[in-house]
């Protein structure tokens, strides 16, 4: 354990995700963007590498995962703990009550936004047939592509049934997303970040999901429209994009 | 008011009105908001296998799931969140999500999957409350539902077994309890001096864990170390569910209505005063001469 924390962050740290143009889906893109935003906020350099079998390379089966030194860590939660062990943390300045709030809001995003993204991708027949299944199985040839796509769809639908979302309609899911965004908008208020001046992992997570939803084309633009109704969330996304993702263009 | 409200839920034991977390949430909320519910326990009936619990019946409407039931009660003007700010409402949503994600899997595991607890406490209790021959079927059905829910939501890949997931869900649950304890601090309820829906949810999830006589539970011992959470549960039980205390503190909506009534009475009194002053003014001498003059003018015109 002591060896892990003693090593500094290497220059060749890589983040793996599915192929950006053809394969990656909304929920995975959102999670990956959240991790990228978090690492940029910490000032840790990382290269983004796209691989068709990223999901299978990941130790937990979830995207994205980072390869640092000889460690492989996946998902935002464990990655935050991993960087904390290396001495980089964004939430050190928070007291206990604020940290409780931050964790609660992160669970809200996972519980509502991520689940809604998965539902829309895989439980809505139109989206699943037109977008999710073709994209998910694009690197593979027949009949493997059909098998993998339907297997993934069956897995996600099983999960939705287990948590009680199986019977929901698309309208109800959009309504849940609106309520979640309203809660986030209330919490953000007029501040630049959720915990006033400094960004935390909550800002990275919210940015990842909202930015991806706004900029991704689905069969229906309703989800993006609902989020665009909250102006402070829109300016929040724009601010983070300009501060952390356009530094290359501004430095020239 | 509206039609009578009837709630179907599991019965009570261990000092609680119901042993089922979700039913407890609804019962607590109804006490906080002043809704009069007729409680129909489904124990010893065939509803143990047919009904999805908790279930609220109001006239023709049937509502399931605690969140939907609370929403329905709010629409019927039983609102315990009346005094919350918008920011506190947002915090409520966030903390409920935290409970669902971090605490619920561990609670399901403690009661339904852990072998010692299940065979010594949960299965005998539910079997004894189900009619023959359902006592063979109901507990095992619930146990397998609980196990599959944990594996599907927390088991990352189909290869993981329950033993590998256990460590993670218990450490998440302990962290969740710590976070709730930090948030509650020294206050009586989560938002000020009157309880709201977040208090109902936290009470519903924590009370069975606190009060059940579990043979082996590290989570229960962890909870018992967090004094403010245990005092929170005991306080709600003493104030709202104690048989010896029939006079409950008035629910929030009623105090709001009472204030509104007082305000309307004041306004009415003021307008009465103004009318009186008006009459006095009309009856006053200066006003009379003014009227006499105008009458005289009119009479001269008609002449």
UniProtKB/TrEMBL annotation, chain A:
The gene is mtx2. Residues 178-240 form the Metaxin glutathione S-transferase domain. It is found in: Mitochondrion outer membrane. This is Metaxin 2. One of its GO terms (cellular component) is SAM complex. The keyword Protein transport applies. The lineage of its organism: Eukaryota, Metazoa, Chordata, Craniata, Vertebrata. Residues 32-152 form the Mitochondrial outer membrane transport complex Sam37/metaxin N-terminal domain. It comes from the Eukaryota. One of its GO terms (biological process) is protein transport. Belongs to the metaxin family. InterPro entries: Glutathione-S-Trfase_C_sf (IPR036282), Glutathione_S-Trfase (IPR040079), Metaxin_GST (IPR033468), Mito_Protein_Transport_Metaxin (IPR050931), Sam37/metaxin_N (IPR019564). Keywords: Membrane, Mitochondrion, Mitochondrion outer membrane, Protein transport, Transport. CDD domains: GST_C_Metaxin2 (cd03211), GST_N_Metaxin2 (cd03079).
Automatic annotation (TrEMBL), chain B:
CDD domains: GST_C_Metaxin1_3 (cd03212), GST_N_Metaxin1_like (cd03078). Its main location: mitochondrion. One of its GO terms (biological process) is mitochondrion organization. Residues 173-236 form the Metaxin glutathione S-transferase domain. Residues 23-141 form the Mitochondrial outer membrane transport complex Sam37/metaxin N-terminal domain. SUPFAM superfamilies: GST C-terminal domain-like (SSF47616). This is Metaxin. Belongs to the metaxin family. Keywords: Membrane, Mitochondrion, Mitochondrion outer membrane, Protein transport, Transport. InterPro entries: Glutathione-S-Trfase_C_sf, Metaxin1/3, Metaxin_GST, Mito_Protein_Transport_Metaxin, Sam37/metaxin_N. It comes from the Eukaryota. It is found in: Mitochondrion outer membrane. GO terms for cellular component: SAM complex. Residues 279-303 are annotated as: Disordered. The lineage of its organism: Eukaryota, Metazoa, Chordata, Craniata, Vertebrata.
């Amino acid at each position: 354990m002591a060896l892990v924390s003693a090593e500094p962050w290497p220059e060749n740290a890589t983040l793996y995700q599915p192929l950006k143009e053809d394969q990656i889906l909304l929920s995975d893109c959102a999670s990956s963007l959240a991790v990228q935003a978090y690492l940029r906020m910490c000032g840790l350099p990382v290269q983004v590498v796209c691989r068709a079998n990223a999901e299978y390379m990941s130790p937990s089966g979830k995207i994205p995962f980072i390869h640092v030194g000889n460690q492989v860590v996946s998902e935002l939660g464990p990655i935050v703990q991993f960087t904390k062990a290396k001495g980089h943390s964004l939430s050190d300045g928070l007291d206990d009550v604020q940290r409780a709030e931050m964790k609660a809001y992160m669970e809200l995003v996972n519980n509502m936004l991520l689940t809604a993204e998965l539902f829309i991708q895989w439980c809505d027949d139109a989206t699943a047939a037109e977008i999710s299944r073709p994209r998910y199985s694009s690197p593979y040839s027949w009949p493997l592509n059909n098998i993998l796509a339907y297997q993934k769809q069956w897995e996600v639908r099983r999960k939705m049934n287990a948590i009680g979302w199986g019977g929901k309609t698309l309208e109800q899911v959009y309504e849940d997303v609106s309520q979640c965004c309203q809660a986030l908008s209330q919490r953000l208020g007029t501040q630049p970040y959720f915990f006033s001046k400094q960004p935390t992992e909550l800002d990275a997570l919210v940015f990842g999901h909202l930015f991806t939803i706004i900029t991704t084309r689905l069969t229906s633009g309703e989800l993006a429209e609902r989020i665009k109704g909250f102006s402070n969330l829109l300016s929040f996304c724009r601010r983070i994009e300009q501060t952390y993702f356009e530094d290359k263009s501004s430095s020239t | 008011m509206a039609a009578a409200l009837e709630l179907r839920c599991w019965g009570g034991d261990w000092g609680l009105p119901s042993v089922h977390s979700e039913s407890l949430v609804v019962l607590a909320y109804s006490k906080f908001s002043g809704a009069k519910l007729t409680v129909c326990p489904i124990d010893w009936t065939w509803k143990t296998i047919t009904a999805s619990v908790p279930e609220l019946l109001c006239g023709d409407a049937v509502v399931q799931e605690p969140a939907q039931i609370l929403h329905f009660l709010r629409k019927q003007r039983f609102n315990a969140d009346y005094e919350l700010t918008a920011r506190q409402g947002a915090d409520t949503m966030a903390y409920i999500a935290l409970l669902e994600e971090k605490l619920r899997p561990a609670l399901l595991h403690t009661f339904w999957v852990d072998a010692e607890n299940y065979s010594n406490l949960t299965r005998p209790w539910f079997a004894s409350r189900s009619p023959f021959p359902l006592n063979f079927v109901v507990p095992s059905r619930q146990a397998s539902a609980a196990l599959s829910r944990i594996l599907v939501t927390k088991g990352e890949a189909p290869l993981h077994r329950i033993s590998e997931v256990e460590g993670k869900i218990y450490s998440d649950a302990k962290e969740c309890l710590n976070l709730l304890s930090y948030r509650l601090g020294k206050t009586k309820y989560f938002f000020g001096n009157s309880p709201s829906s977040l208090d109902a949810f936290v009470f519903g999830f924590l009370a069975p864990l606190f009060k059940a006589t579990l043979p082996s539970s590290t989570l229960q011992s962890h909870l018992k170390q967090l004094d403010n959470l245990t005092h929170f549960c005991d306080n709600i039980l003493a104030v709202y569910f104690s048989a010896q205390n029939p006079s409950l503190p008035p629910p929030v909506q009623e105090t709001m209505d009472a204030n509104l009534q007082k305000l309307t009475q004041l306004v009415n009194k003021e307008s009465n005063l103004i009318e009186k002053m008006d009459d006095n003014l009309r009856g006053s001498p200066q006003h009379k001469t003014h009227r006499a003059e105008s009458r005289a003018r009119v009479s001269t015109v008609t002449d």
